[in-house]
Amino acid sequence: MKKTLFFLFALLCWASLPLKGQQAKYVFYFIGDGMGVNQLNGTEAYRAELEGRIGIAPLLFSRFPVATFATTYSATNGVTDSAASGTALATGEKTKNGTLGMLKDRETKVNSVAVRAQEAGARVGIATSVSVDHATPAAFYAHVPNRNDYYGVGKQMIETGFDFYAGSDFQRPQHPAHAAEANLYEQSEKNGYTIARGYKEYRKKAAKAEKMILLQSEKASRKDRSSISYAIDREKDDLTLTDITRAAVNFLSKDLSKGFFLMVEGGKIDWACHANDAATVFHEVMDMDNAIRVAYEFYEQHPDETLIVVTADHETGGIVLGTGDYALNLQALKHQKVSVNKFSTLLNDLRAGTSNKVTWEMVQKALTENFGFWDAVKLNKRQEERLKKTYEATFAGKDAAKDVSEYQRDERLAAVAKEIINEIAMVGWVSGGHSNGYVPVFAVGVGADKFHARTDNAEIPKKIAEAAGWEW
pTM to 2 decimals? Predict the structure, then answer.
């Protein structure tokens, strides 16, 4: 009897351990650009306040069983940019700021975990909410000394031959110096890619496509080719990060026997942080969580073969939750209905519709409708005077300077409205740039145990490759 019990106990212990040689066949790698620890914490605290309580309402990915944090410095700077951090997250090598897929000498090329997956026979997808040739996605396929060489990056993207790409569009589809050269859309088709504009068109074309590039509609690109819409500004037919992730999983699943690697970037978290737009940041983090749900659904169907890793390339803005009063009022942000960038567009439309004769009453109405001011959000005298003075300095026929952040040029009045609602919410910002703050790392699935300890961004792709059994 004792022998039988001992045998059963040993069998149960053995069954609870991962199988020797068990590897991740399907790998998801999510990168929240600019998403530091406080961007995540702020989002969860905001969600809790919307429920009427102090605390956090966890996102899906923050509940993954493995959670730690990573350092992000580059080879040459204590504060990294997205090219250097993207290269570290993709290749396992630190490099000089501004450099993609090369060592800090800006000459020696280094391959990414995506290339190693491809060489191992897996299908590969690279997706983002910004342009397909932006720094983070480009770090997985390009080798250029200057991240701003968008045409060169786009050309390398096509030549790499990965199975699936998705994003808003190409930043520079035409050669900057040789107009006669075929544009990147034509070159993509010659290299075997089918281009789909929007999720509906993807569904029509996917079955017959051997390789796919999913972009937003041409109408959307005429407005802004550099990114898809912020989640807070989204309209009915806009391409979303969830659409992109669902399409990627669908396309890469055409032949599950090969396995796959998929990188998805929530790129506009960073853009909203550069603009110090807290409400928009929190909506972007939640939006990436929705995209991660698509991967998690796949994981639930293939729990013994799937790895999901979620991290960030760096923190942006130095966001502070609490500005001295030992309190937060994040629920005030629910009254902000649009990003500061979209509100700038609305103000510009007012200018155009009135031949630049915008009255203070018109501005007040727009502020009430889009920020809740004078209604759900009460202003003190100083805040109201600040808005009025900004109006007087920038409207009534005046051509005012714009408020410039890394990716946006906003009306000064829009920026002031954002600053005031941040103040009311008790959210502060250190800068409009990146910081050296820790970034979170979460993992679930096969190989997730490799991410238990504090790490560095350059270690993450190596651990992914180890979990999948791809040669490093």
Answer: 0.95
